[in-house]
Every structure is written in C-alpha cells, then in structure tokens.
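As described in the Methods, two query proteins were run sequentially through the folding procedure within a single session, without resetting any intermediate state between them. The first query and its resulting structure tokens are shown here.
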Amino acid sequence: MTTRKIRVLVIDDSALVRKTITDTLQLDPEIEVVGVANDPLIAIDKIPKLQPDVLTLDMEMPRMDGLTFLRQLRSEQSTLPVVVISSLTQQGSQLALEALEAGAQEVLAKPDGHSSIGALASKLAFHIKAAHRARRPDRSRLLARQKPTFAAQPQQPGPGDRRLILIGASTGGVEALRYLLPALPAQLPPILVVQHIPAYFSKAVADRLNLLTPYEVREACDGDLLRPGLCLIAPGDFHLMVVKENGYRVRLLQTPPVHHCRPSVDVMFRSAAAAAGSHALAVLLTGMGSDGAVGMQAIQRAGGHTLAEAEESCVIYGMPRAAVELNAVDRSIPLDGMPQAIIDGLSRLQA
C-alpha cells in the first residue's frame, strides 16, 4: 500500500524562491508540490482545486500580504497548516511573530547572505512534515485567562540559591511560551529557554514575551550571568550551554546541529545536568522529534526534577513522548497546569 504524499502549495512572489522551495521539497519522497502561486489572491483560487495539505507562505507580497491572507484563511475557519518562509529582518520578524499568533505552524528564514539554500533544504521538509502532523488545540481561552493563583507562594531565591529552570520547545512552542512565561510569578530562579527558532527571529520573540511577563525576558548573550528574575532565550542558530562560573553563566556555541537543530534542547539540558545537577528543573514542551529527551534523562539521573507537557495540550506530542519513553519524566502535565507544576517542582529541589 502506497502512503499518500503530503501535498504542498508554495506561495511566494519570487520565481527563484518558488523554484528553490519546489526543487527542494521534490527531493523528499513523502512530499509532492502540487502547485505554486505568486500571490495570495491566486492561491485563494487554487486551494479548492488542488486540495493542498500544507501551504508555504511569504509575508511580503504585492496585492495582498501574507499576514492578511493568513488572517482571512483563519477567519473562514480553515485549519490548513501554514509554514511561513520569509525574510526575517527586524520588520519581517515582527510580521512572522504576528503570523504565528494568527495560526501559522512554523517560521523559517529565507536564504540570504548569512544562510544558504542548503541550510533551508535541510530544515524545510522536516518542518513541512511537522506542520502536517500538528494539532491545533484551542489556546485562545488559555491565553485570555487571568494569571493562575498558586496553592502556596513560591519560595523566593535567597543568597547562594543554585536552582535553575530550563525549558525546551519546538513546533507550537512559541505560543506555549506566550501562555506559560507570563503565568509564572516574578522572582523565581533564573529561567533558560531553548525554542527551535531561526536566527534573527529569536530576538523578536524575546522582546514580545518581555512585554507580557512580570520579570525580564531577553535574548541570551555569551557570558551572561544568571540571576533570579531573569529569563534568557537562546538565539537562533546558537547552542546555549550553562557553565558554573561565579554562579551560573551562559555560553553560546555554533558547534554542529544536534537532531538537525541549533539551538538544541539536549545541549542545554546536558550542560545543566553537569553544572546544576540536583538543582535543575527541566520542562519539555510541544515539538516534533526527540530533541531534549536524552538531556532530560541526564538531569533526572543527576537528581533534578523533570516535567513534560501532556499529549492532550501538545501541538505535536513528539519531544515529550520521546522523554516519556525513556522514563525520563517525573510528571506529565497539560499546559494549563504547568505553572503550578513548576512551582511544585522548585519546592522539591534543594536551594
């Protein structure tokens, strides 16, 4: 029995980009490009005829921009998965972030002087498959909720507190973080986040989250000293490691990708297992693949506490499932219960 290929419609005003994406995807035996469109108005006509499973979408196009098209698509109750492939300049990153909030599954950077066609090719098929498999749990009510009230006030970090919160995520993770981080109280131990994300886009995500949280959120810089009330997001295209140096510091590396990812959750988790050991609290959110599972196992074996998002709230139950299958997860929790689970987990750790 032949498995049906994933049908893709490519929407971009550049003939070169359309050809590049098409040629790249046609190399994968599980994917078929069924059509191209040089603007969304043409795509609107083609979608009913071609019945694609996934759209790739540029943001900046004539006649109708990608964000307007995506919002129109969602207003018509379409759940057709969308992968944004756009120039992630400062303006482009803001548009891409709004596209995620409007219902896009993934954001990838167009090749430019800093990234090659080959770099896109290595990621594109993976993300098309992730978007195709993604569920769309309704998070609108979750995001609209008031902040949770906690069963007990969290123990505030004192002098010499060595506890550390580490969060990893991939597909669906930006929206999960948009709920989780603002739901956490100020003055927790330092928080480090690895979200699979393109270069240049991570700063836009960190800046947006910083506006929503009661503590500082920003993109990590090499050598940053960790402190309570600070959350650092790994920059796109850099691995983030934790090292013991006058407390904890961040190291950023461009060593080879792990699980085809840079940043990799496993790199952060394994370094935290070595640096923080039983003082580490690891959280693994939605995402395709297995990145983070082995690192979470290392934190658990070092005496830390481990949490994974439960299948019912995941966009893709891939990374959490891989950790569960390794018996590396102490508790599996739906996203709306994760803030309390983090507070409870911190209370289990020795300060």
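Immediately afterward, the second query was submitted; its sequence and tokens are:
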Amino acid sequence: MLTRRLALTAPLAALPFMARAEDGFAGFLDGVREEALRAGIRGVVIDEAFSGVQPNARVIQLDNHQPEFTLTWAQYKARALSKTRFDQGYAAYAKDAVLLNQLTAIYRADPRIVVGIWGLESGFGAHTGNFRVVESLATLAYDGRRKSFFRAELLNALRILNSGDISAHAMTGSYAGAMGQPQFMPSSYLRYAVDADGDGKRDIWTNRADVFGSVANYLAKSGWRPREPWVQPILVPQGFAADRTGRDISRTLGAWQAMGVRRIDGRVFSRQDVSGAVVMPDGAGGEAFMTYPNFKVIRRYNASDYYALAVGLLANHVA
C-alpha cells in the first residue's frame, strides 16, 4: 500500500505530513483534475502527469526549512561570483556568441545579461534540478505555505504538458517547481518561453536556442532598454550619507559627480545627463555601485539587489 511504503522510506520528521496526506492527497488530485478538464486540458495529459505522483516529503522539508541567516553582500558575492564562475561565463559566451547575438538582436536584449542570468540560475545549464515538477507543485499546493500560488502553478504546468512542448517525465526542476536552465516557474514559461529555433517546441531544458531566446524575451517584455548600461562599480567620498543611496533615489551623473561620486578608476563620468542610483549593499565602507534603469529590469527576474548586482557584474566580465 502507498501509505505503508511511504512510512517505511520517509524520514521520521516527515511522518506527520505523511499521516495528513494519507487520505486527502488523492482527493486533492481529483479536484485539480476536474479543474484542469474544465480549463480544456486533455484527460490523457492529466492522467500521465499524475501517474505515480505522491506527496514528496523532501519538498515539504525544503519548503519549511529554508535558511534564515542573512548574508552580507561581500559573503553573497564570494559565493556567487567566484573566479571559476567568471571563467565559465567567459567560456560560455565565447562558445555561443553567434547564437546569443542573433537571438538578442531579435528580442532587443543584451547577450551578456542573458549569460549572466543563465550563470546565476543554473550554472550555465549544469544544475537545473531533478525534482518532478508536477509532483513538487502538487505537494506544495496540497500542504505548502502558499497553497493557492502553487495550485495555480500546477495548473499552468498541466497547460504546458497539454501543449506538447515537454513530457511529464522530462519536466524536471527545483523542489519549488522552477524549471529548466532559466529556472522559469510554469507561469513565466507560459508568458516568456519561445521556440527560438523553430522546431515546434519551447524546450528550456536542453535546447540552448530556446533557453537564450526565452531569457531575452523575458528581459524585453520586462522593459529592457537596448544599448543602455545596467551597473558599474564606483567610488564614493568618505562619509557619504547612506540616506542618499538606494535603487529608487535617482539623480543625473552630473549631480552625483557634484557630490564627489566617481568611476571606480577615479575619473569623472563620460556622460553627465544620464540618470542612475547609487546602491551600497553593505552600507558605509562597503562597495558602491551606480545602477541604471536596466538594473531594475534584472530585478524583475529575481527581486533581489544582490542577485541583480551579481548578474550585472558577471555580465560585465563575459565579453
């Protein structure tokens, strides 16, 4: 029986969850199935997607025990932007430069930022997650902290399967349902994934053209400004007031320069009329960066200043 098998294989900490799931999970899936059918998803697709799906105790464990410690920017940067990561990014860009430039010209995004996001999200495609997306989403929709969110994402995953872009077996990702090399949630996939090579499928798992095109499309539809900068390291004068900083406090570079802000090499900015915002993630005494409107576009991919800074700095070094 399912209950006995789960009880024998699950960690002891997961047993209360398994006990709750014993009777209700099958009924939950029946409810999702009815909703999916009403949404026009074919029954055979739903049956294949739900075949063998059961509550995944590891998913709940990871969802309930996310790290609570806070990294400083210096600590985050050391983890995210190692010399190895920079070297891999340089090699990845060089290898796929022609394809990257072709696709980003179509979507009017920057190929270096596409590589930066690709590197941060999946280590340039090396680490995409091996959880069954449907099982992860079903588990979180049934017993997670954000049930309605994950139920909607589960239905979106079924819509993707219904389109024929990927099989249920091949639809793998993180424990939270982020999929493929760009780590798109199903809703993001439906909005932004593209069939860049024209083979009839939007494959963000194994097809680099579709991966690059989908990330570029995401940026374009999020407001990317072609041929404009995103972030650069700067120098600020000693005692520079923290209340002058933050991504939403924008001034012209001429105004910042009048306050003593300079490029990292100590020289004045080449343009005085461009507007930017000073971000000092570790506060006074730490690194400082001039951020531009495209910095906020990167944050739409992941709403973290640390993430957007890391993507931007990696992008600065890949070509």
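Residues 1-10 have pLDDT under 50 and may be disordered. We note this only descriptively and draw no conclusion about the first query from it.
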